[in-house]
Known about the structure:
six-stranded antiparallel sheet, 29% helix
Amino acid sequence: MNGSEAWRAGLLLGVMLALGACGHHRGFGADDDDVDINAYPANYKSDIVAAMHAYLNDPTRIRDAAIAQPALKPVGNNVTHYIVCLHFNPRKNATEYAGVKEVAAVFLAGRFDRFIETPKDQCSGATYAPFPELEKLPP
């Protein structure tokens, strides 16, 4: 093997090692063993309020907002995560409301992940309390 072939082999080995290291990272932190995927979502109300700005076209003047406490429930393929059930009446346009909508906020590692639009199984039997923070969202 001449000098140029040895240099290419070394470069190839370096690239392979770098790519191999990337394949073991799942995105939750430097040490995945320290992350509890089902950590309790301590800031669930503020996380939900923040997510509503992206979820709704017009997050202002929401009516009848209510929220349930976080609960561990099956989501998807019987994977269990903390979810928070909500119901509220969002605006359809400047003068009309869309009607009461029920969604569930899914939390992974204690942080908001996504909303489930039809959470029938997850939210059956949920006990709701008023959620005035959602009714006071700024534009």
